[in-house]
Amino acid sequence: MIQVVILRFMLASILVIGCIGGELKMKYYEKLCDTVSVENTVREIVWSKVAATPALAAKLLRLHYHDCFVRGCDGSILLDPTVNTTTEKTAGPNRSVSGYDVIDEIKEKLEVDCPGVVSCADIVALAARDAVSFQFQTEMWPVLTGRKDGKFSLASEVGVNLPSANANFTTLLDQFGTKGLGLDDLVTLSGAHTIGISRCILIARRLHNFTGVGDADPSLNTTYAQTLRNICPNPVNSTTLLEMDPDSSLTFDSDYYRSLNQHKGLFVSDAALLTNPKSAHIAQVLENPAVFFARFARSMVRMGAIEVLTNGQGQVRRNCRVINDE
């Protein structure tokens, strides 16, 4: 039943979301790379990697998210720092981002099969979808392609654009709004926290000194707060890891919302979704897996179209880590 809902929504998405993505379209590379299927190449590599390392799914999804919120979905997060520039990947929130090696492997393969054609930005978008989709063995959302790669990447642009785990509701809604995303996208895309891990250091204040008197955030479920304090005793060890979705961090499902509605959201930004009546209602609705998967598909297509470069903008990098010499 869930797969039927997803399929119906994907078909509808293809018809109505073209205007969101500008010149992005389905099967953009079909004629440009007539001897190889770009989508199949990405899927085969990503699925083999996720099969061997299930935690990689969350990493590739996060890589796409962190790319799109800074300068749009242009692959700018992939650029290595230079002597004169500290790039996005060097900024604090991005230092724990990973998955670059998978993108490199895909790019190297496609440069052999169809040189100079497939952008790194499109590879990131396809890899994120395929990483999540491996669990279901079917495409979870359509990925429109045709993005070009950006030529600029600045660490200084990350903090103001990338939503923080400590952000309140107003800040989150404003940051999503500046990217053309709405309230439903905010709540739905937060569901990406159903997979992946974090570090104790990111919730230390919430657990041990929320108001400055050694207390935990009162909005956090008391039992869960104590569980987290046991995992992350004060002073916290910056290397200690914990699941964002307890006991379900490798499974893409709607359990995130069940936990959230029990006040067990890990981050301040999770709890913030319950501070607004409309977003709290959406969080309740999204406990239904079929509804969550369908809305997540829609929001991922919308996010994947943020500030994309097309029509002569940008370039197709030969190496995802370096701008082409021109």
Question: Could you please describe the fold and organization of this structure?
Answer:
- This protein has 326 residues and is mainly alpha-helical.
- It has helices spanning 2-16, 38-52, 56-68, 100-113, 120-133, 158-161, 169-178, 183-190, 204-208, 222-231, 255-261, 268-272, 277-285, 289-303, and strands spanning 197-199, 241-243.
- The protein folds into 2 domains: 8-162, Orthogonal Bundle (Peroxidase, domain 1); 187-297, Orthogonal Bundle (Peroxidase, domain 2), CATH 1.10.420.
- The chain has 14 helices and 2 strands, in the order ααααααααβααβαααα.
- α3 packs antiparallel against α5 and α8 packs across α14 (289-303).
The average pLDDT is 93
Distance between the termini: 51 Å
CATH architecture of the largest domain: Orthogonal Bundle
Regions with pLDDT < 50 over 5+ consecutive residues? none
Largest pleated sheet: 2 strands, antiparallel
Number of domains: 2
Integer-rounded radius of gyration:
19 Å
Defining key terms:
mainly alpha; single chain; 326 residues; Peroxidase, domain 2; two-stranded antiparallel ribbon; 14 helices; Peroxidase, domain 1
In short:
By secondary structure, the chain is mostly helical.
